[in-house]
Amino acid sequence: MLSCLVFLLLGACKQEELTEVRVGEVTRSIFYAPLYVAMEEGFFEEEGLKVDLRTIAGGDKTMTALLSDGIDVALVGSETSIYVNAQEANDPIINFAQLTQTDGTFLVAREAIDDFSWEMLKGSVFLGQRKGGMPQMAGEYVLRKNGIDPHNDLELIQNIDFANVATAFASGTGDFVQLFEPTASLFELEGVGHIVASFGAQSGHLPYTTFMSKKSYLEKQAATAESFTRAIQKAQNFVYANSAEDVAKSIAPYFENTELSLIATVVERYRAQESYAKNPILDEAEWELLQDVIEQAGELPRRMDYNEFVDTSFAEKAMN
């Protein structure tokens, strides 16, 4: 009896001894569904981790929090690591697990278009995203890929704050707008606009959003980073193995003001074009395409060596 009691006590202690990981996400988005699945389905706890999730609006602020040790891990676009590492920091920022692998925006037209072609944007008023931001750079890349010069073939508006772009379009500005979900689908439901194309489907695979940390943290907390990445892999498997409705139910607590049916619609849309990465590995082709996109936009400080700023060892172990 005593031995059983000791065993139970030890088991209880073991369950309580979770390693805390402070994670800063650049925004709250259904685009990041696997992260919330990992939290709600207990995958982090299974790996002995307790995640303290904080939403830090803006890539600059998120990276500042990471550099100042306010957080341990940042979930943000890989381009931010390029900008920081270009300043030759003593403690480089390393991308170690990928969450999304395409652009997450959609092209929304004011009127419904049955047979859309990108040529229709020529001569139009296009309400884009912030200059130098990844959505805008990926958007310009897609336009050029389809034979459109974003600065000469249309009237490009990109001086509106990210938070106000949707409102500006709803108020009558622009013929087309580049929007994230769930706003794009919500506009369709309300008749404000109509989704006619996906920038994500056109962009190709990019390390659009990744988990990154200081090199020193990954060296000191290698076991924690591996456990963290394994939990993300479990969540990625869950997202693709279950129905969009079940995924929506799992992440619904993070989107209290969004209808469950709308969450499911967005999950299915992102899943159909494989915006959610199926594993945490950021491969070299994706890294190089990212730099091509940034370079075309005139924002790349210099090419960054994949082997120096990407570490796939944790993802490879998690997959095995």
TrEMBL record:
It is found in: Periplasm. Its main location: periplasm. The keyword Lyase does not apply. It comes from the Bacteria. GO terms for cellular component: periplasmic space. Keywords: Signal. Pfam families: NMT1_2. Belongs to the bacterial solute-binding protein SsuA/TauA family. This is ABC transporter substrate-binding protein. It comes from Metasolibacillus meyeri. The lineage of its organism: Bacteria, Bacillati, Bacillota, Bacilli, Bacillales.
